[in-house]
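I'll show a sample.
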Amino acid sequence: MQKKQGVWAMPNFKFEVLIDGIPSMYFTKVEGLDPEERRMEYRHGRPKRYSEVFELGKDYSGSVELIDGSLAKDKASWDFLAQINMGIAEPKEVSIRLCDERGYAILSWHLSDALPQKMNGAKANRKEISIDSMTFRYKKLSNSSIPNFE
């Protein structure tokens, strides 16, 4: 981070969203990216002091809300938005990357079998489509860090 005239420059982060067959979408805020792991507790018939056994449970499902975004104005984007509006959208694989001001990914998340649930405030101008919010319901969320620091 560089210091300019006594004030620290704030980094400008954005979320890049990649969906099957659709050019990149960019959002300023994403909510619901907290992976949660379910654990099952059961007793195996041993003495009480050794009776608690923990095992992984079923995959967690949840929802992610993408807020204040834009996407390119092209046929694939229009078709995707039309499917959401008509309620015929199919589950997709969705990747979300947190990018710094240079466009390098710092963190990434992957949503398996993500189904778009709702979309609010879609507007279009000559170059891009803007979206107030879009919500995806997913079956599994995984995340990873991408070390790309210089």
Observations:
- The chain has one helix and twelve strands.
- The chain has a mean pLDDT of 79.
- The chain has one domain: 3-145.
